[in-house]
Specification:
The complex is a heterodimer of chains A (116) and B (113). Chain A is mainly β. Chain A has a single domain (5-115), classed as Sandwich (Immunoglobulin-like). Chain A has strands at 5-7, 10-13, 19-24, 31-37, 44-50, 53-57, 64-68, 74-78, 87-94, 106-107, 111-115. In chain B, the strands form two sheets. In chain B, strands 1-9-8-3-4 form a five-stranded mixed sheet, with no helix packed on it. In chain B, strands 2-7-6-5 form a four-stranded antiparallel sheet, with no helix packed on it. The N and C termini of chain B lie far apart (37 Å). The chains are: A mainly beta (116), B mainly beta (113). Chains A and B meet through strand 4, strand 5, strand 9 and strand 10 of A and strand 3, strand 4 and strand 8 of B.
Chain lengths: 116, 113
């Protein structure tokens, strides 16, 4: 079965650089969620999109922005990177339109971002 | 979302049944109880979700007492590959909720040979 695809899987950036993470949800899924997990931490919700519109916003820094495109893929843009942004970034998706329980989300493998 | 409390860690041996209990005293009428499993450096994986009584799937069982103030995830005959962090989440999975998962401190299960 198709899964959530994230790219790149690993990314190394320097402080103050920018980074773009991509997420391709499972086909027919209309909702995308972004989570950040720092070393030894629990996943933290950043932002979500439903039908290409921002649905909810969590602890996403102002330096970060995201969007969902017409093909439902999503991109997380991160600027002025800081050392503390080093983390695993997960994308998850589900199909809210068909009443799928919104707490049943399918996670991608994550992008490991290292800021030096 | 209702606040949840679960043990920080648990140890078990291969072949044993493991029960992880989660307390959620402030659970609301519309809230569902959902459990996720996370292996190191991997995304969380949905295990099971329930509202009341007992739910069973191919992976686990979820026991929810009548007052719904707690729930127990039961993993039958664990193996080394069940070593992971298990998260209990409680919230309204339908209707007006936005659906973002609020992960608390999960339970780190270590299965030994």
């Amino acid at each position: 079965a198709a899964g959530v695809i994230q790219s790149p899987r690993h990314l190394i950036k320097e402080k103050r650089e920018t980074a773009t993470l991509k997420c391709y949800p499972i086909p027919r899924h209309d909702t995308v969620y972004w989570y950040q997990q720092g070393p030894g931490q629990d996943p933290q919700f950043l932002i979500s999109f439903y039908e290409k519109m921002q649905s909810d916003k969590g602890s996403i820094p102002d330096r970060f922005s995201a969007q969902q495109f017409s093909d439902y893929h999503s991109e997380l843009n991160m600027s002025s990177l800081e050392l503390g942004d080093s983390a695993l970034y997960f994308c998850a998706s589900n199909e809210r339109n068909l009443g799928q329980g919104i707490y049943e989300q399918y996670f991608g493998p994550g992008t490991r971002l290292t800021v030096t | 979302l209702a606040k949840t409390t679960q043990p920080i860690s648990m140890d078990s041996y291969e072949g044993q049944e493991v029960n992880i209990t989660c307390s959620h005293n402030n659970i609301a009428t519309n809230d569902y109880i959902t459990w996720y499993q996370q292996f190191p450096s991997q995304g969380p994986r949905f295990i099971i979700q329930g509202y009341k009584t007992k739910v069973t799937n191919e992976v686990a069982s979820l026991f929810i007492p009548a007052d719904r103030k707690s729930s127990t995830l039961s993993l039958p005959r664990v193996s080394l590959s069940d070593t992971a962090v298990y998260y209990c989440l409680v919230g309204d999975g339908y209707g007006g909720s936005q659906g973002n998962l609020i992960f608390g401190k999960g339970t780190k299960l270590s299965v030994k040979p």
